[in-house]
Specification:
mainly alpha
Length: 101
């Protein structure tokens, strides 16, 4: 048996209630744009994004996440918590490369 849940999602691009990418971080908008261009474009985007995160230190975590996190989150991403997060978050693109056809 399989189950899935989400606490956030995007509306289908053809949805009549969708306002596009309003409210999303620029990084997500850029990623969706690359995904819409195809597998080569999203792979290139993800490689560049991952390269920038692989060597991030605790002091750089909040800035590295850019518009993907709120000010409240950025304020919490400090000290020991940020150090542990930086050290325990290996960047792998294996799961990201499943492109729907």
């Amino acid at each position: 048996m399989w189950a899935a849940a989400t606490i956030a999602s995007v509306a289908p691009s053809a949805s009549p209630v969708s306002t596009g990418f309003a409210g999303m971080g620029q990084e997500n908008i850029d990623e969706f744009g690359a995904a819409l261009k195809g597998e080569a474009a999203i792979s290139e985007f993800l490689e560049k994004a991952a390269a920038g995160l692989r060597a991030v230190t605790g002091g750089e975590v909040a800035a590295a996440l850019g518009g993907l996190v709120t000010e409240v989150d950025r304020n919490a991403l400090t000290g020991e918590f940020a150090e542990v997060l930086a050290e325990s978050s290996p960047i792998s693109l294996d799961g990201h490369r499943r492109v729907a056809r």
